[in-house]
Amino acid sequence: MKEMKMGVIESRFADMIWQNEPIATSELIRLCAEEFNWKRTTTYTVLKRLSERGIFQNNHGTVTSLISRNEFYSLQTEKFVEETFQGSLPAFLAAFTARKELTAEEVAELRRFIDSYQEG
After folding, report:
1. How open is the CA angle 59-44-25, to the nearest 5 degrees?
2. What is the pLDDT of residue 4?
3. 65, exposed or middle or buried, with CB in 10 Å at 0-12, 13-18, 19+?
4. pLDDT value of residue 63
């Protein structure tokens, strides 16, 4: 699979597409001019870059995603946990919660998730 990293601006651009897809390139150009003050060529350049990474496609002036926002960020999270914590989700959670206390709602949500995973 191709490199699927995105910078901050690319992420905002991608979110714009995911929120509005399918979106005509003319509409995407208009939105990018408003949001980022980009020229048409900048929009096409960033779209081409993300299309080459296998995230989006431009088919006859209509832009759609090849993977969903959720899939993209799931892949990024998996890669981060694998590279940083040798794939250990408990090690990741221990590091994450070392400086951020979980709320009672977050703990309950994690318990529900674990319980549903065990049942499945």
Report:
1. 50
2. 75
3. middle
4. 98
**What are the chain's domains?**
8-69 (1.10.10), 88-120 (no CATH)
pTM of the model as a whole: 0.79
Whether 22 and 62 have beta carbons less than 8 Å apart is answered as yes
In whole angstroms, give the CA distance from residue 33 to residue 28: 8
Phi then psi for residue 31, to 5 deg, are -65, -40
Residue 5: per-residue pLDDT: 83
Q: Is the dihedral of CA 41, 13, 47, 17 positive or negative?
A: negative
What values do phi and psi take at 4, rounded to 5? -115, 30
pLDDT at 1 over 60: no
- The predicted structure's pLDDT at residue 119: 73
